[in-house]
Amino acid sequence: MDLSLYVAVARAVNPAVAGPSASGRRGDDANIRGRGPPFNGGGSIEPLTGLNLSHRIYLAAGSRDGDRLANMSGALSALGRLGVSIERVSAVYETEPVDLPGERPLLNAAVGASTELPPSELLAACLEVEQALGRRRSRRMAAPAGSPRRADQGPRPLDLDILFYDDLVIETPDLVIPHPRLHTRRFVLAPLAEIAPDLLHPVLEADIATLLARCADSAWVRLAFPPGAWWTEPRRQVR
Known about the structure:
The strands form two sheets. Strands 2, 3, 4, 5, 6 and 9 form a six-stranded antiparallel β-sheet that branches. The chain has helices at residues 3-13, 46-49, 68-81, 119-132, 186-195, 208-214; strands spanning 31-33, 55-63, 84-89, 92-95, 106-115, 159-165, 169-171, 176-177, 221-225. It is globular. α5 packs antiparallel against α6. It is an alpha+beta fold. The longest helix is centred in the N-terminal third of the chain and has 14 residues, at 68-81. The chain folds into two domains: 3-49, no CATH class; 55-228, 7,8-Dihydro-6-hydroxymethylpterin-pyrophosphokinase HPPK (Alpha-Beta Plaits), CATH 3.30.70.560. β7 (169-171) and β8 form a beta hairpin.
């Protein structure tokens, strides 16, 4: 959805919300923009996204420990109870554990969904689901691009990462969208290209199919389970 719509609605709800030409930094040092110039309004990013509008989001889901497929299926159910409407999922791929050589292969998949949750609440929902399934993160969900990161050596029954939130570009101390490393990871791009090959990366200005074709990641990725193995599309009522 175009950023101008967010601004128009935000101004209608709160006239103090500035437009794209506003200057100055927000209190949480956030930077949010669409495909146009950076948006730097007062307060937080929530006036633009917490307006009871439905937002298109894409998530990466993965699991290494325990019943991996059940963990991922349970995550979808839990997200649904927290305000995330699952609309499409990819097949599940078994992938080489790049950051943890010698460990058990991971299962990875992509999720297309919609939500009225603003980005910070979506992040909180993902972390809540991870923790409910036994994950204890020792790092941020999406560290800023270029930041040093250590591989999480603890149990990893579930990984949930926000890949895209509409076409917004968000940078805060706790959240970076689009995910800053998705274009370098075949295990993210392969499932995502299955469900959204034409999705345009708002920063790199290339679609997912193109990014996958360009990806230099040599780690192996192989099909493990069809989409129906971990998610059943709700039946639509016929009137």
